Amino acid sequence: MTSNPSSEPILPSRPKILIDHSLGRVAIPAFFRSLGYETTTILEMFGRTDVRDVDWIEEAGRAGLVVAHKDARIRYRPAERQAVLAAKLRMLCLTSGNLTAQDQVEYFRTNMAAIEKWWPKPGPWILAVRRTDVKELPLRD
After folding, report:
1. Does residue 1 lie in a domain region?
2. Is 104 among the domain residues?
3. Tens digits of per-residue pLDDT, 28-87?
4. pTM passes above 0.70
5. For the chain, first and last CA: distance in Å?
């Protein structure tokens, strides 16, 4: 048995992914599943889509999930921001709101090598997934 000399948790190299309903129920979940990621959606997890952001954030944090969504403003809303911080959530955020499902898949496909480099890093963090790159978004007050 090996020990972890740092105080940071050892994270799995292939996290489970939660897809927020803002990204739809078909194309993005299918994309992550095609890469071998265990993936679930808000609907599959809760049986409905009208779940408060704070509730799914807390549950995702408890389950150690990485969340894919497209609500870049979540980091500015006090209750959601605090929930992300408390849950030490790791998030992937498409920052362009008017993308087709095909465009959304392409943004993730183009950036998967860069995204996967973030898996070992403990949360909280929000990673903006853009057309050709990724960038960490600051969690603001």
Report:
1. no
2. yes
3. 999 999 999 999 999 999 999 899 999 999 999 999 999 999 988 898 999 999 999 999
4. yes
5. 41
Domain count, the chain: 1
Q: One-letter amino acid identity for 103? A: D
User: What stretches of the chain adopt beta strand conformation (E)?
Assistant: 17-19, 39-41, 66-69, 90-94, 125-129, 134-137
Residue 6 identity (one-letter amino acid): S
Strand pairing class (17-19; 66-69): parallel
Vertex 70: Cα angle to 66 and 75 (nearest 5):
75
Residue that is written with structure tokens 């403003």 in the block: 73
Residue 103 located in a structural domain: yes
**Dihedral sign, Cα of residue 110, residue 114, residue 119, residue 123:** negative
Q: Does 5 reside within a domain? A: no
Q: How many CA atoms lie within 13 A of 54 on its CB side?
A: 7
